[in-house]
Amino acid sequence: MLVNDFQNKVPDTVDELTKLPGVGRKTANVIASVVYAKPAMAVDTHVFRVSARIGLTSNAKNPLQAEKQLVKYIPEEKLAIAHHWLILHGRYVCIARKPKCNECGIRPYCKFAPKS
Ligand code: SF4
């Protein structure tokens, strides 16, 4: 398909990328934002979980719903880096089983944070 349909070039839009076999929306968003610096938000399990916990998303039932909410409220120029912030925050601070709320820099803004 890259040769025949896209003139030997990896496409730069999510719509075109997801036409490629094996490329889902998350991968397409990663390529669009990392390779082409487009304002796109890839939602993997970590972004999905952390966004919901903090309160950046509300009642999102799937990654696409979460993506739509995040894209709506995060400034366009911050979307690509916000994806990495959320992943790193989930990996090192807001850990799934035991979030480090006492060390967390965004605790005052977090819906899940203990109130004491
Ligand atoms: S305060 Fe706790 S739950 Fe909220 S983002 Fe920080 S680590 Fe996660």
Strand content: under 5%
Residue share in helices? 40-55%
Number of strands: 0
Global structural class: mainly alpha
Bound molecules: iron/sulfur cluster
Characterize the quaternary organization of these chains.
Answer: single chain
CATH architecture of the largest domain: Orthogonal Bundle
Gyration radius, in Å: 16 Å
Largest sheet, described in full? none
Name of the level-1 CATH class of the largest domain: Mainly Alpha
Number of helices: 5
Give the topology, please.
Blueprint: H1 14-17, H2 25-35, H3 45-54, H4 63-73, H5 79-92
Helix pairs in contact: 3-4, 3-5
The structure holds iron/sulfur cluster.
Iron/sulfur cluster binds next to helix 3.
Describe the structure.
With 116 residues, the protein is mainly alpha-helical. Helix content is 43%, strand content 0%. It contains 5 helices and no strands. Helix 3 (45-54) packs across helix 4 (63-73) and helix 3 (45-54) packs across helix 5 (79-92). The longest helix is centred in the C-terminal third of the chain and has 14 residues, at 79-92. The chain binds iron/sulfur cluster. Residues 53-54, 93-94, 99-101, 104, 106-107, 110, 112-113 line the site of iron/sulfur cluster. Iron/sulfur cluster binds next to helix 3.
Give keywords.
116 residues, mainly alpha, Endonuclease Iii, domain 2, 0% strand, elongated, binds iron/sulfur cluster
